[in-house]
Design brief:
The protein is mainly beta. Helix content is 12%, strand content 42%. Among the domains are: 85 residues, Immunoglobulin-like; 179 residues, no CATH class. It is built from 13 helices and 44 strands.
Length: 856
């Protein structure tokens, strides 16, 4: 497998997760076996149902929480610890004696507190579960039938204020980190520990973000307006994209609306317990009917039919007033759910009664605990709390609000001050959380921390910082290919420490086989006076480059000239020498709309086994010169991304992305030899399929007007590496197909283990099914076909004179693959089948392609 392909693919899927992964590695560093081991289950003494999220801890602060099935496992090396405490909200605390230095099992039954005893759950008698004639299913069907009227969007007008707090903590690790030499300068941060949020756990805050805004909703015509009153978050400095981190975490911890059929959490779609299809995937049990503040409620317990599916288990209180709304819900995921790195996930939502008798959410809390190792007592704990207040129903706001932008940032000079947040927070920060702001500000300004940041930047980006400039990319210092042989390359670029507006990047490379130098010199001016990769883009870039390329190879977020991509299957002998002069202006504006205007003067010369030979007289030409002016318009509504050093990584959501590109060749300008027009259109969209996962779909097409030699036609994207490329044809050879008109469709299916979760034994591996299908229609008109037009250049051939480049006929090119993802939680392996054009030289029907991804 091509490891660099893996590395850069890892960048596409995972750079927006690097901070999280790094913290997990630190959190799980201690793997020494404890001498005292205690395991067991915790149940409700009245119902004998398992109790998830019970705090189980020794007096020294070492603690765990029970899983969704009530199980726990805890270890300690301290022989003096002889008692274990079990604590859970609204239950009586229990302390059990343990035998030091031995492995033992202790099962515990917790008694409800006096408050809880008023709503003791009464489980139905066990028996074969059926939906038919089941009063619990009848009740949930009433809830489903009334979902639309219980949504907040059912009102003609709604206004409210929303406060969000998102916090991440290292759990149970501060004492270990204090002893680590890497953190010897940061002990003031490690002392700021919270031991009250979760009993038995020491929490070290490492990230805090807050947001306060007003929401205005209108039903007809539909409008959703947000006025941001204030935003605040910790800032680790330049080596992390603080905005990108927040956007990524906001996606992981997105708003939860149980009235939606699907709830998006940790980049996955969980089926709501009150989804339209809920009775097909959940079991429901009426536990009791209770009366709270004069309101009669039914206590409904729900649990997955298949514990491996992305479903919840928990309890909801349903109003019995004819509205069948939810008054409270507490739920968690099964420990067997096919989701990675997540030890626990629990959600609690409280609803309050409005004047019209219906309920709307007042507070929502989601807690998660992550760990690289299943039995690790430490990890990463995350909590997102959202509070809603000042609801105004069916009273319209001013027309100017509905007619304005969807998101308005109200300039407030006091939003960064402590007094602003003290006055406006719905939920006040703990003293530990408040101190985290101060500590991280101090940390960011320390020279030792900046050096540590430079080390991480080098490890993940390949650039070594020297203040005002950087040396890199180290991944491309050495490579090899059939044309250049061994290739050495060194490059660098300036940083914002030299200028916020002007940037220079360059490199110099040398091939020992062709004995030629390659180089690049580029200069960029940012009209935003910040990084040229920061939203919204607004820059002009001018560059001159002499380089080799493989026609038809397009690697996402990676460079061809790195060592690991030097390894390729089949013949890899068709190359071009290119000289480019480019002037490129890019601007983003409005609702994620951007345009890109480029002028390019391009000289192509053959290399390797490619020759520019005329059909008419078999003469050879040295090169082809083109002058081209192009413009691209791109629309990506609601697009978010993580900001990397050299590119931005989109955070894929449900919204489509459209682009249209038009190019005009200009004959006579700077020796340009051809007049032509090229139009290219593309649309990308992710379709969520609830429990079936999702599908990524791409539709693409292009048409070239004019008579052109083959290097200027569309050379379809091929992949001869051993890594799986989404955007290319994995069984197509380089330069195998050329078109002047084409249309293609790509479908990538991600089933997230829906089928394998039902297979005994196999389901324990938590594998996930993937499948792809790609189809390409195309062709070459007679005016561009060298077999019918002697004024053109011959298509390339192999050493025996056999053709290796073809035009698509009436039969489309097709390939499909099936594969397994989540192997060891990281590896995807696809078996790819080429379906058509099997008689072409050097092709095979089958191939194995692999990919490394980091997904929850």
């Amino acid at each position: 497998m091509c490891l660099k392909q893996v590395s850069m693919r890892f960048s596409l899927r995972c750079i927006n997760k690097i901070t999280l992964l790094t913290l997990l590695l630190l959190a799980g560093a201690n793997i020494l076996l404890a001498q005292t081991v205690v395991k067991g289950f915790v149940k409700d003494a009245s119902t004998m149902q398992p109790l998830p999220f019970v705090s189980v801890y020794f007096k020294d602060g070492n603690g765990v929480m029970t899983g969704s099935d009530g199980s726990y496992s805890i270890e300690t090396r301290k022989s003096k610890l002889k008692t274990l405490t079990f604590s859970y909200t609204e239950y009586k605390k229990v302390i059990k004696e343990v035998i030091p230095m031995k492995e033992q099992t202790i099962n515990v039954e917790l008694e409800p507190s006096e408050k809880m005893s008023a709503i003791i759950i009464k489980t139905r008698k066990r028996g074969k579960y059926r939906n038919k004639n089941n009063p619990a299913v009848a009740l949930i069907e009433h809830v489903i039938e009334n979902k639309e009227k219980n949504r907040i969007t059912s009102y003609d007008f709604v206004q409210y204020q929303q406060y969000e707090k998102l916090a991440l903590y290292l759990s149970n690790q501060p004492e270990k980190l204090k002893k680590n030499l890497l953190f010897k300068h940061y002990k003031f941060v490690l002392k700021n520990v919270d031991t009250t949020t979760l009993e038995g756990k020491a929490l070290l805050p490492i990230y805090i973000a807050e947001k306060l805004f007003d929401k205005y909703l209108r039903k007809n015509p539909p409008e959703d307006k947000t006025i941001i009153l204030g935003e605040r978050q910790v800032n680790y400095g330049d080596f992390l994209d603080n905005k990108g981190i927040k956007q990524y975490l906001d996606k992981l911890y997105s708003d939860i609306n149980i009235y939606d059929n699907n709830i998006s959490i940790l980049n996955s779609q969980f089926l709501s317990p009150i989804a339209d299809m809920g009775p097909s995937f959940y079991r429901y049990y009426i536990r009791d009917t209770v009366e709270i503040n004069g309101n009669k409620l039914a206590t409904l317990y729900f649990t997955p039919r298949n514990p491996n599916d992305l479903l919840f288990r928990g309890t909801m209180f349903v109003t019995l007033d004819g509205n069948y709304g939810v008054q409270n819900i507490s739920m968690s995921i099964s420990k067997n759910a096919n989701i990675n790195w997540t030890k626990e996930l629990r959600i609690n939502q409280d609803f309050e009664k409005a004047n019209d008798g219906r309920y709307h959410v007042a507070k929502s809390t989601m807690m998660t605990e992550f760990s690289l190792f299943k039995n690790s007592s430490g990890g990463l704990f995350g909590e997102r709390t959202t509070a809603y207040k000042n609801f105004i129903i069916n009273t319209p706001a001013a027309d100017s609000i509905y007619d304005g932008k969807d998101i308005i940032v109200r300039n407030n000079s006091s939003e960064g001050t402590d007094s602003f947040w003290l006055d406006n927070r719905s939920i006040q920060l703990s003293s530990v959380e408040a101190e985290a702001y101060t500590n991280i500000d101090s940390l960011r300004n320390m020279k030792s921390f900046k050096r540590l940041g430079d080390i991480f930047t080098f490890l993940f980006s390949g650039y070594i910082g020297f203040g005002k400039w950087e040396l890199g990319n180290t991944n491309t210092f050495y490579s090899f290919n059939p044309v250049e042989g061994f290739r050495l390359k060194v490059g660098g670029r300036t940083t914002t420490k030299l200028s916020n507006s002007f940037y220079i990047n360059s490199y110099l490379a040398y091939g020992f086989k062709d004995e030629k130098f390659k180089y690049l010199l580029g200069a960029t001016y940012s009209f935003n006076h910040k990084s040229v990769y920061s939203y919204p883009l607004n820059y002009l870039k001018v560059s001159y480059q002499h380089e080799t390329t493989i026609p038809g190879q397009e690697l996402l977020y990676s460079q061809e000239d790195n060592f690991f991509l030097s390894f390729k299957r089949g013949n890899n002998d068709k190359w071009l020498y290119n000289k480019y002069f480019k002037a490129d202006y890019v601007k983003e504006f409005g609702k994620n709309i951007s345009y890109d205007v480029t002028f390019k003067n391009w000289i192509q010369a053959p290399a390797g086994d490619i020759y520019f030979q005329k059909v008419s007289d078999n003469s050879f030409i040295n090169d082809i010169t083109t002058s081209e002016l192009s413009a691209q318009l791109r629309w990506a509504p609601n697009e978010q991304f993580y900001q990397a050093k050299e590119f931005r990584i989109p955070i894929i959501n449900k919204y489509p992305v459209f682009s249209i590109n038009f190019s005009q060749g200009i004959k006579g300008l700077l020796n340009g030899e051809y007049n032509y027009q090229n139009i290219h259109l593309r649309a990308d969209k992710r379709f969520y399929l609830s429990q079936l996962g999702y599908v990524d779909a791409t539709i693409e097409g292009g048409y070239i007007f004019g008579k052109l030699p083959f290097p200027l036609l569309t050379i379809h994207r091929a992949n001869q590496t051993y890594g799986f490329q989404d955007n290319s044809y994995n069984m197509m050879n380089f330069m195998e197909f050329i078109s002047d008109e084409f249309a293609s469709t790509r479908l990538d299916f991600y089933f997230n283990g829906f089928f394998l979760n039902k297979v005994p034994l196999v389901k324990k591996l938590r594998l996930r099914e993937v499948a792809t299908f790609k189809i390409l229609y195309g062709g070459i008109r007679d005016e561009n076909n060298p077999e019918k037009n002697p004024d053109l250049l011959k298509f390339p051939t192999d050493s025996q004179g056999q053709p290796t480049t073809f035009a698509l006929g009436t039969t489309p090119y097709m390939e499909a693959s099936v594969g397994l993802a989540n192997i060891f939680k990281l590896v995807r392996l696809d078996l790819v089948r080429r379906i058509t054009y099997l008689d072409h030289p050097d092709v095979t029907k089958w191939g194995l392609r692999t990919l490394i991804t980091f997904n929850f």
